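Hi C.,

You asked whether I'd gotten around to modeling the 223-residue construct. I have! Everything is below, sequence then structure, no commentary in between.
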Amino acid sequence: MCGRFAVDSEINELIEEFVATGGDVNDWRPSYNIRPTDPVPIVLESTKTGEVVRRLELARWSLVPSFSKELKLKYPTFNARSEDVASKASYKSSVVSKRAIIPASGYYEWRTVGKAKTPFYIHDPDGDLAFAALYSWWRGPSDWVLTATILTMPSVPHLAEIHDRNPVPLPRSWWDDWLSTEIDGDQTFVDAAVAASIGKAQSLDFHQVAPLGENGPELIEAV
């Protein structure tokens, strides 16, 4: 799973990295302790007036399906298991046509031994990560709310000692297909994306960090 992560990039850096030409992320500030339901930058593509636009938007990190009557659900949706995501009512329509990327500098995971939980920061030493994600628009009483979830996969061996699952870190070669509005996604498509992400996951590095405080770059420093 992925219950906390960091994005230390400024808006202009994200726009340049993902070649985004639209969207509204004026309220975004780098954060080192993003929690479920916090706003997160996501990359998505949409078609307007016949033209595909890649956008950078802020979304609520916990997907709420359009059919839900409430914004706050009784079950967690900040992560979605990739193995059967296309058959789950909350996610299956998003798999087809509402796929996104959530940028991350890295994420936190806790290794549990008995009652002791030790936090680790997991990251790519060569640059930022692009988590495979899904999004959904939820219509509230007065406005629309963009929501998103991060896909997870069984952990690769060297990360399994910390936790049995890790986010799906899409390689750059998969960004365009994952975001494409012209590809109808299904479970086979998701499985192929996960398989392509194994090599990226195997390249991730990690180090122990101090218990998470409020926010700031000191949270990702090794101890």
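If it helps when you're writing up: The chain has five helices and twelve strands.

Thanks,
B.
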